């Protein structure tokens, strides 16, 4: 993939991810969190499934693989992220959820035998430091924080599974059916753990439309495409941009305060992304130097 196209798609995807946190929190004023997420993914999955109906559908064990990815990605990640906002801000939730890149390298090393250079480990650690700085150099460990970290672990696991199984699927088909599986699971979870409700207003319908179209269909189609097209650790490193977009959009949409250290943390995040993705420099004869 052309690197400029890759960067453009990454920026669009991480921006949509970041904005979806405060938009989702707005939606929680009109619906229970699991119920809201269930509606989001069932509608998004159903619409995308209709769009890709003529493309090859999963067969055999592929259905189980798609369902497992949906349970982990759509239900696990988003369920934890939005449920955590009962206790913490949408900006904090986006920061915690997107510690995923560090976990991808850790899980990839121990579970899949992937090999990463010391520079990449340092880059991810640098990015994680940027997240901590963005968080104000303090992390208040409470129920919401722990739930958010559970979502980050789910995110890392789903990233590795998509990279492992994604080649078997048309990625748009996978995006559709994993969202349907995750949405159904969230609706069942809502029925068991909360009192489902949805208040119809212009604002609530607008929130659902954003979450379905931009925050689900566009986001997942682009994200799965990027994961299959590149190294999952390198692609996931760009998720450190999500908290920056999440904090800024939370400030604009919800009035959540953005302190001076957000800019400093953002600079650390950018350096971390560069270190993880830097391939090295070429000799005059075109040979690449791996650093």
Automatic annotation (TrEMBL):
Localization per record: Endomembrane system
InterPro entries the record matches: AA-Vitamin_Transporters, EamA_dom, EmrE-like
Protein topology in the membrane: Multi-pass membrane protein
UniProt keyword list: Membrane, Transmembrane, Transmembrane helix
UniProt superkingdom: Bacteria
Organism: Paenibacillus planticolens
Domain EamA: 6-135, 144-277
Record keyword Transcription regulation present: no
UniProt keyword Transcription present: no
TM regions (residue ranges): 7-24, 30-53, 65-88, 94-114, 121-137, 143-162, 174-192, 198-225, 237-254, 260-278
Family assignment from sequence similarity: Belongs to the EamA transporter family.
Protein name: EamA family transporter
């Amino acid at each position: 993939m052309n690197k400029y196209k890759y960067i453009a798609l990454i920026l669009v995807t991480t921006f949509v991810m970041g904005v979806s946190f405060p938009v989702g929190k707005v939606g929680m004023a009109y619906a229970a969190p699991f119920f809201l997420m269930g509606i989001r993914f069932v509608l998004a999955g159903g619409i995308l499934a209709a769009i890709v109906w003529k493309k090859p559908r999963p067969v055999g064990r592929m259905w189980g693989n798609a369902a497992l990815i949906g349970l982990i990605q759509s239900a696990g990640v988003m369920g934890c992220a939005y449920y955590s906002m009962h206790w913490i801000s949408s900006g904090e939730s986006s920061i915690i959820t997107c510690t995923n890149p560090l976990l991808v390298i850790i899980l990839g090393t121990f579970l899949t035998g992937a090999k990463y250079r010391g520079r990449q480990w340092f880059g991810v650690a640098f990015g994680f430091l940027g997240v901590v700085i963005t968080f104000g150099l303090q992390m208040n460990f409470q129920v919401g924080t722990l739930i958010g970290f559970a979502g980050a672990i789910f995110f890392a696991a789903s990233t590795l599974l998509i990279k492992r199984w994604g080649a078997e699927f048309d990625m748009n088909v996978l995006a559709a059916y994993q969202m349907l599986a995750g949405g159904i699971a969230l609706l069942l979870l809502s029925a068991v753990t909360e009192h489902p409700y949805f208040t119809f207003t212009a604002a609530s319908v607008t929130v659902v439309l954003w979450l379905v179209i931009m925050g689900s269909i566009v986001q997942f189609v682009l994200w799965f495409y990027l994961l299959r097209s590149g190294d999952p650790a390198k692609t996931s490193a760009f998720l450190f941009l999500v908290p920056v977009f999440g904090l800024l959009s939370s400030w604009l949409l919800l009035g959540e305060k953005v302190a001076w250290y957000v800019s400093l943390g953002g600079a650390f995040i950018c350096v971390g992304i560069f270190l993880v993705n830097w391939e090295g420099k070429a000799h005059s004869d075109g040979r690449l130097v791996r650093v």
